[in-house]
Specification:
It is a single chain. The protein has 139 residues and is mostly beta strands. It has helices at 2-5, 7-11, 45-53, and strands at 23-32, 35-42, 56-63, 67-71, 91-95, 100-104, 113-119, 132-138. It contains 3 helices and 8 strands; from the N terminus they run ααββαββββββ. It has a single domain (19-138), classed as Cyclophilin, CATH 2.40.100. The longest helix has 9 residues, at 45-53. The protein has an 8-stranded antiparallel β-barrel with strand order 1-2-7-5-6-4-3-8.
């Protein structure tokens, strides 16, 4: 039962790559402006830290021309940091300097980011411009 509710705690962490970009069993739902995204988190310490913070009621807003951001109530562990060279729209990342989530809907270059996971069901809701209340929860 504990393995189903908290899969990371039940499976142990020994020998795992802290910057893993392998999908985990943990999925999240991001809801704003009557739109919903789901994402699968990666199996790394930063993604686990985010999952343990949930649920959250915050604000999602536009940043630049390629992403929306969500400012978290506290910084995440940066133990999931590691280089990656296959950036693409649909990535869910953590921006270390500011302590916010970054949800990418257009191309970007890795810089100060920890990759937390991937959006599962397309990222069209991110194209809606504006600032909205957002609810993020585990599913």
């Amino acid at each position: 039962m504990a393995a189903a509710a908290l899969p990371w705690e039940a499976n142990g962490q020994e020998g795992r790559d802290p910057a893993s970009q392998e999908p985990s069993d943990v999925r999240i739902r991001i809801t704003f402006n009557d739109l919903t995204l789901t994402a699968t988190l990666y199996d790394n310490p930063s993604a686990r830290d985010l999952a343990f913070m949930l649920p959250l009621n915050l604000k999602i807003e536009d940043y630049g021309t390629n992403e929306k951001i969500v400012r978290l109530p506290r910084k995440l562990t940066e133990d999931g940091s590691g280089p990656f060279w296959n950036e693409r729209p649909g990535d869910l990342c953590y921006f270390k300097p500011w302590g916010n989530l970054a949800l990418f809907y257009a191309g970007y270059r890795w810089n100060g980011l920890v990759r937390l996971g991937r959006i599962d069901n397309g990222f069209d809701p991110l194209l809606v411009r504006g600032e909205y209340p957002v609810h993020i929860e585990r599913i």
